[in-house]
Structures are given as structure tokens and as C-alpha cells.
Amino acid sequence: MKYLPVALAALVGAASIAIASWIGVAALLVVVCALCGVVALGWPQLMGVTARKSLSTVIMAAGVVAAVGAAIVTQVESLFFWSSVSLAFGVMVVFMVQVVRGSGRPHRLESTRGACTGVVITTTAAGWIAGLRYPAGMMEAGDGAGLSALRVRGFVPYEDWEFLAVTGPGGELSVVALSAFVMCVGTLAACVPARDALVLPLIVLVSTASSVGVSLVWGELTLLFAGVLGVAGGVLLASFRRFLFLQGAPEKILSRLAVGAAPIAAMGALVYFTERLLFA
């Protein structure tokens, strides 16, 4: 039962992202900001840092600014710009907080390191919004070569369906809900009560299989993209499971929720950059 809040936080976060991506950017912005809030409240407590209120505020503000920036920019090149800015200023403000606290304070190094990690997690959550807004779709190569050769046609006409929001609200292909679905499946695999030597590879295999399986059924996505996306999500979840079991379940409920929400937030950056790298 002590790990139940961790799993529920991850499942609810991923499911909320999937539903919000079907509704639109504004709804996804609200969900991402809420996800950042969960991480911001519990992360300083999890890392055992001091000055928790001020550092939670910094972690939350950095994530919100990054998310809002991804939602309002008008150029594709700027979708992740505010995440970079928020990350830089967030880390800077963390150091400023430590300076203002004065010398001789206990655990200053651990506090700084933990808060900076929280800033990284919340600012990368904006990748979910950037991924939804990014003009997805593979450009057909003139000679049929390249990545487009790996495209598979699904068994269901995706144009007439909105299952899992694979067809986005703007009519373009959206991979955000697919990625969130992969994280849900991977989270369920991470809950298997067995040794890490068995469960960690299982998480990666199940996440990859679910991503590729949906792509085969739905079509339009490439097998390369689906495979990379599934592996990335699986490795991320496996890493957090390993971290959680090595450290043990956090004592406080907010810390447990933060551990569950953190990999879901961090997956946003992987979704966006996978799109940028593999989608023309």
C-alpha cells in the first residue's frame, strides 16, 4: 500500500494528459500546470531539502512559465524556448535563495541539488504541450526512401476516428495521447511485484510493444517513431522504479505523489524531441 500513491499519481497524470490532448491545448496546459504543482509540493520534501516553501515556489513557477510559453508561442522553433529560459532562471533563483539564506545553513548542497532537479523536471513537462502543437506528420519522400519507408498502414481508418486522440483536435496526427497511453501501460508493468532484474526489462518491453501495437492498428505513425517512443518511456519508468526501490517509499504522501508524477512530467521533453528528430 505504501507504493499505491506513487502508482496512482503516475496513472492519473498520464490519463489526464491523454484526455486533455483530445480536448485541446488549453486543457493540456491546465493538466501540465497541475502536474508541475504536484512535483513542486512534494519534491523538496522528497529530497530532504530546507527552505521548502521558497524552493517549491521556484520549481512551480519555472514549470508554469515553460508550459504557458509552449502554449502561446507562434513559431515552431520557439515551442521549447521558454523551457530553456525557465530552466536557466529557475536554477539561478535556486542559488539566489541559498545566498539569501546566509552562511552556516545545514544541507545547503543537498538543498540546491534537489531543487535544481525539481526545476529540470517541471520545465521539461512543457514538452507535452510543445508535442501537441508541433505539426506532426511524415513528409513523403519523393523516391519513397528514408523514414517514410517504415510507415505502416493501420487496420482502422484513422481519419474517421478519435480513439486515444491519435487524430488531434486540429486534424493533424497527435502523438501526445499515444505517449500518455504508453506511460499508463508502463506504469502498470512497473507495479508487478517481482525482482528488478525481471521487472525492469519487462517495463521496457511492454512499453515498446504497446506503442508499436497501437501504431500497427492505427497506422500513419512509423514503426521507428513508435519504437523509439516506447523504449524512451519504458527506460524512464524503469529508472524511476529503480530509484524508488533503492531509496524506499517516501514517508510523506506529497513526496510519494511527486515521485509518481515526476516521470510523467519528464516524458514531455522526450515526446517533443522525438517528434522533432523523427518527423520531417
Automatic annotation (TrEMBL):
Source organism, top-level taxon: Bacteria
Keywords: Membrane, Transmembrane, Transmembrane helix
Keyword Metal-binding on entry: no
Transmembrane segments: 25-43, 55-73, 79-100, 112-130, 173-192, 199-218, 224-241, 253-273
Protein name, UniProt field: Permease
The species this protein was found in: Nesterenkonia salmonea
